[in-house]
Amino acid sequence: MSQDTLKRSAAAAALDYIESRLTRQSVVGIGTGSTANFFIDGLARIRHKFDAAVASSEASAQRLAGYGIPVLDLNAAPSLCVYVDGADEVDPERCLTKGGGGALTREKIVAASSEEFVCIVDESKLVERLGRFPLPVEVVPMARGLAARALLRLGGSPEWRQGFTTDNGNIILDVHGLHINDPLTLEAEINNIVGVVCNGLFAANRADRVLIAGPGGVRRM
Ligand code: 5RP
Known about the structure:
Helix content is 30%, strand content 24%. By secondary structure, the chain is α/β, with parallel strands linked by helices. It has a 6-stranded mixed beta sheet, with helices on both faces. A hairpin with a 2-residue loop joins strand 12 (209-214) and strand 13. Helix 1 crosses helix 2. The radius of gyration is 17 Å and the shape is globular. Bound molecules: ribulose-5-phosphate (5RP). Ribulose-5-phosphate binds at residues 31-35, 85-88, 98-104, 107.
């Protein structure tokens, strides 16, 4: 079974889960990436059951708009009933690494604004401990060197994601080799580095529910 088939199954399970909770007034928070794209494609089929969406990236906003789904600015949205997004890694405590697509800051903002965060993954994303996937850190461009030196002191090896600019006009440092024993503490420590906008650890705002697709079906964490 291909990874895309599994991602599509996880997205379908999220649609099943949220569908009965939607009303004509509901605003849905939408993530970024290939799994989130499958979710958007499915959401288009139940377009009549909710009001609008808030997107975590320009790419997702464009995909939603392509289906005629109204996309609201977060500040204009009354409340978000749910946020649905993929992840790069998921640990047994539902802490995540995100930001492979570089949208981590807006993803964290929309997730934090939503009543519930439903994470959808194929089972290759499950890990016992976060850190195998390099941790994306969004940094104000002029602080690149300053932030990189601070990340080195935390035990990581930062690598500048060359040629990439976030939707917020910033750069990404992908940090390799971190030993993430305490995601909550490390998330706060990295956020405390001057020039860091946000990092891809989702521990303070971890997923409320993880839907994991494997060859035997979709299970819930
Ligand atoms: C984007 C993300 C994505 O959710 C993450 O990279 C997973 O992507 P995909 O669903 O394509 O495997 O955090 O910033």
